[in-house]
């Protein structure tokens, strides 16, 4: 398929579309004065990212991304925003802090990263034109989690337990008479 | 360099990740509210995830490590969000705002 | 029972610990615990004695039962400890346990109400333990240890009423004076050990079997046996208060009277005699006979010398103390003239009647509250029990024949002296006369006549004090019947203790002696005693002979005797002054040479050096430290303005720093040509 003089594949079109969605909504996330809308745009960003995962032959990760990030974390953030409701009604200048300096710093950082990526030679172990692992499904993930990565897996569960308790303790309202 | 069916070099994904990361970084610096900063952190974590999965998928030797790492990152992102939001709610309860630039108790 | 004889000293040790720790809570304030222990020891001693003498154990064990265990390794040598039972040990066990138990029972009454009552009984238990260990020890090290322990308990008990400065001084004096003798004892042990290579007394490798190794000529042309014997005798002189180390014993009367009875009359002071008797083979092995000669003359001199002092003393306990010194002189003298059996026999009988005399005097003191016989008088009616027991023991001490124990033993001593050394015999007879004289002076002044001081309301002592008196009076009469000239059970059992070889030596020395009743000696002994009693009677009871009339011609003598021949003063002027002068010289040397010249000089130099070093430290080392601190502080106060407290600033700084560092690191690695085909990678 030729588009504007370039030969282009369907995958490339899909990538460009998903990248556009992701980056655009990501910019909305950081620039929206209304924090609730920013959170909703975060959900969109994460959806875009999930699409990119599919494009990289990682469908299971895409499903996890949608379920946990979009379904749980974004919901939790929106809930927190509702709980601290007053922060929603502010203007742009109150929401954004010193944007010029920040843009400079982030831009330099991106330039640095971009130059590094562009000037590296990725041919040695990396396939040039697309993902190589075509058959990475739930089975492979499960086997990896429970065999070579079982210790980090269990450790993660322990971390989650600690977080559960810690979050409750932190967020709980102090009752009078309690230490 | 022959064109595959995909026709997407890894540098595309890496550049996308870098962009997403820098947007998150920018958000970290400009957002006054703590919740906004948390959103930016999520963006940066996603950028890192994209890199992990890209490398895992593009390696000539098939490997699952990238995806596994991404799963752990998601797990820890959830944990971070939970604790961070708990702190935010606590701060809001104490000060009626969540503006980080006003929280200067640690200033010398 | 004999196998378990080691329990005899162990029980009082346990009692000592218990009474010392729990005395106030124990029954009878600890007294019953101590008495139970000593009575158990007494019962065991009696059992041992019956088994040994009557049960045939002596024959079964061939006259000696000895057990040894390893005690402590010293270098490559092993020092042993152990106990031995033979006739000598059994006799001493009986004496010590009988007197100790009676004295402790008596003490219940005498020490009643004393603030340190439990401690008194604890000390008594410790003394009993040490004394019993001493008499059954078969090893010179163990002997020396218990020897020093009895010295320690003696010190503690003399100074029991340490609030009185005189008691304190007397305790110190007793300890130090006996220590002079102990040095000789220790030297003797070392000499014996060096030559025989053994510290055990018995056995094939023991001291007694190897005495021939000591039979070489040493310094002053004396055989080493004589030297060893004399060194051991030094210990005996100190402990048994022989001249010239007798001075501590009269002062030791500052202790409670039962203590005087047990330690300073019956048992501990007799330890010196026991030591000589136990080591008798050493003296018999002495081919020159020098050691025993010295023993005999020292003993004889002390016997008479102390008796004369006794005449002029007015303190009831001091009279008895000099009497004890005199009687110990008798025993030593007897050992010196080969009267091995006689000396031990006198020790045996003397323990009972002298303990009784002391306890009687304690009863008198308890009843009247004074110790001065010039303030007493007429106590015969008020204290009949005390009087009669005191009289019986006095007669025993005077050596009234046939009816008293002392009669038999004293006569035996004189019989041996008659055979071997007439000079000693004469001194002994004079001593017997003097003894009778001063003892009846004491009895008359105390119990007869009219009370000389009327504010004294004398009363008889409680029964707990009288029972021991009666038992001891009984023993003062009947204890002598084991050693009558016709059936001398004592001799028959005691002589084999020396071992076959030395038994023969002793028999050769006494060859030709008339065994059995010796009429000449009997007449001398009885006559001198009766004469002494008679003289005392005509002077103090029926004053036919007015002592005041003798005053002009004998005044100087009386004064000399009353002041104990100025022995203490002579010691003060010579030995103590000399020691003080030597100490002063040493002190001066210390002060001027060592302190000023050496110590202070070194100190001054050290200080100078450290001053220099301190200056260096302060200027350079501290300066460096301060400069580093100043730099840190200045930098910190400059950088603190970065600490704004705004999180966004921190992130900005973080990103900037990351960019700068990354650029700096990677700049070197980027190849020049790689910058060109960017478009190629993105196509």
What does this molecule look like?
The complex is a heterotrimer of chains A (about 180), B (about 110) and C (about 675). Chain A has about 180 residues and is an all-alpha fold. Chain A is built from seven helices and two strands. In chain A, strands 1-2 form a two-stranded antiparallel sheet. In chain A, strand 1 and strand 2 form a beta hairpin. Chain B has a single domain (about 10-95), classed as Helix Hairpins (Orthogonal Bundle). Helices cover about 70% and strands about 0% of the residues of chain B. Chain B starts with 9 loop residues before the first helix and ends in a 13-residue tail after the last helix. The model of chain C is unreliable at about 675-683 (pLDDT under 50). A two-stranded antiparallel sheet of chain C has the order 1-2. Chain C has 27 helices and two strands. Chain C has about 675 residues and is an all-alpha fold. The radius of gyration of chain C is 38 Å and the shape is elongated. Chains in contact: A-B, A-C, B-C.
Helix-strand makeup class of chain A: mainly alpha
Strand content of chain C: under 5%
Rg value of chain C: 38 Å
Total number of strands of chain A: 2
Distance between the termini of chain C: 117 Å
The number of helices of chain C is: 27
- Shape label of chain A: extended
| Portion in beta strands of chain A | under 5%
Distance between the termini of chain A: 69 Å
Order of strands, widest sheet of chain C:
1-2
Arithmetic mean pLDDT of chain A = 81
Number of domains of chain A: 2
CATH architecture field of the largest domain in chain A: Up-down Bundle
Low-confidence stretches of chain A: none
Q: Reading side by side through the largest sheet of chain A, how are the strands ordered? A: 1-2
Largest sheet of chain C: 2 strands, antiparallel
CATH class of the largest domain in chain A: Mainly Alpha
Based on the model shown, name its key terms.
heterotrimer; A: 179 residues; mainly alpha; Four Helix Bundle (Hemerythrin (Met), subunit A); 2 domains; 7 helices; B: 108 residues; 71% helix
Question: In brief, what are we looking at here?
Answer:
The complex is a heterotrimer of chains A (179), B (108) and C (683). Chain A has helices at 10-31, 35-55, 59-83, 92-95, 99-119, 138-146, 150-171; strands at residues 2-3, 6-7.
